[in-house]
Amino acid sequence: MIESRCIVLLKLLMGNEAIALGAIKAGVNVVCGYPGTPSTEVLETVAKHNDGSIYVEWSVNEKTAMEVGAGAAYSGARTMVTMKQVGLNVASDPLMSLAYIGVKGGMVILVADDPGPLSSQTEQDTRHFAKFSNLPVLDPTTPEEAYEMVQYAFELSEQVGLPVFLRPTTRICHACAPIEVSEEKINHKPEGFIKDPKWVIFPSLAYKRHIEIEKLQSHLSDLFDKSAFNAVSGQGRLGIAASGIAYAYACDALKAMGSDVKLLKVGTPYPFPKATAESFLNEVDQVLVLEELDPVVEEALLELCAQKALCVKVLGKKDGTTPCCGEFSFEIVYNTIAKYIGRDVPAAAEAPSQPLPSRPPVLCAGCPHRASFYAVKKAMKGKKAVFTGDIGCYTLGNAKPLNMVDTCLCMGASISVAQGIKRVEPDTTLFAFIGDSTFFHTGIPGIINAVYNQTNLVLVVLDNSTTAMTGHQPHPGIAKTMMGNVSEKVSIPRILKAIGIKNVWTLNPFDQKAAINAVQDASQINGVSAIVFEAPCIAIIPKPKALSVENDKCRACGLCVKEIGCPSQYVTADKKVHIEPSTCYACGLCKSICAFDAIGGEA
User: Fold this and answer.
1) Is residue 130 located within the same domain as residue 165?
2) Residue ranges with strand state E in 222-356
3) CATH number at residue 73
4) Can you give the pTM of this predicted structure?
5) Series of mean pLDDT values for 10-residue runs along the chain (603 residues)
6) Do the beta carbons of residue 178 and residue 10 sit within 8 Å?
7) Residue 51: which domain range?
8) Counted domains in the chain
9) What is the DSSP letter of 484?
């Protein structure tokens, strides 16, 4: 008789990697999503460790990913959908209906929140979406707990027949920790799709399901009261309630102080574990609530105090005890707890007297977007024009000296916002900039709207052959998928022509003469015209030898530096321009600007 053994390995993992490996262990069958920091590495890690039994895809947007995941879950598959917090806005339409329809296979919606925000338009809190949609949400406090939580989330989803949110924040996603990872995994075999009227949403069905879902919330709250993810520890009449990364900071701070207080850990903020929280509140006189981002736990405790007539003072965001916005840190939590329990704050924990210098992000040296923006800027010099921007690396075109992004709202909005401005200012030339991945994400409907409503504007597609900002993921315009298959490349110019745009230019932005001429011609056309600037991102091509400046030819005019702001160029004490060879990609844009032919050759 052969005894089978489960091999457990201790691995140093990023939080996102831990979530991915936890999903694989849970027997996930389908993983789909759209790249967005800080969530991206989850899907990529699943793809990296895929033994061929998991279907993995980067969908064109989060709405599509949610719907693909729903179909798989209807068929009994264990499914995970990944995105960042603003991506959930895009996916909210199918999400709300999916909460009523329900699922058969376990479905985990991984939404990574971005307090700060560090790389997002907003720092919205996904826990509100959980409450809004009446879906459970799990809030990991460490990468180790995230590994366990994602496995529990699949089980919970199948138990209650609903999708379950897993909501790590940036520091959980990107922190690293040693985690015991089992090589054993569940072999989950989907039953397949079974026809049933329940999969078709109708108003009458929705009303009945809403009643059932509301009743289910009480059951879920009772279920979470028994969960190890919610716990009470410590002693004394002073209490602290914490969730997410704030709980980990609180534990570290209390350990550093050598203090012990009554501590409530909330790992399931919705539905709220009322019995656990009530027991905690009965043993304290006041509570400090620590959480990112909004006062979700704080409001739940205040509501519980009101319902149960508990005379407990609750401190947190609402009274200004903790910051109402932004990311927490160990120092913030340490200082807050120290003041709360009456301890002196050591000098080491105070904020530095001299703030760190600001380092705003810039377009990379050699980035083709710089050449595209510069061509449009030169072509429209002296003319009344507005340049609407979108979400991607090219948003950085708003910075000096380019100053070429006047608006930025959300994915795909550049094209629609431009149409609104044009209706108010018909004498203004409108340019809408959008990247290739964003074009496929949510750009196409806006373009169709512009064509249908006969709006005069110039669409500029910045095609750098990748989803650059989030780590160079593939998209429909690239002939490959996350499953390693070669796919049919979807042509952006052909889509534009099929939509009804008659004048479409496709050219390399580093050919500045041709680019400027195309922009000038496009701006004179009635209706929608389009320019597709095609040049690869520097991160996906081999680095060429750098250009150099011939010192005797340089007249120290500084025009190349002032015009394009390339980070590879700098001015020395003699006021001459020099090029840093380690970062120069020899794009030639500065060379085309130099009036004295001083730039060229190799460094």
Assistant:
1) yes
2) 231-233, 238-242, 262-265, 286-290, 313-315
3) 3.40.50.970
4) 0.90
5) 64 96 97 96 96 95 96 97 96 95 97 91 93 96 97 97 97 95 92 92 87 92 94 95 96 92 96 96 97 96 96 96 93 94 68 72 93 97 96 92 94 95 95 96 96 97 91 88 86 97 97 97 97 95 92 89 92 88 93 90 60
6) yes
7) 8-221
8) 4
9) S
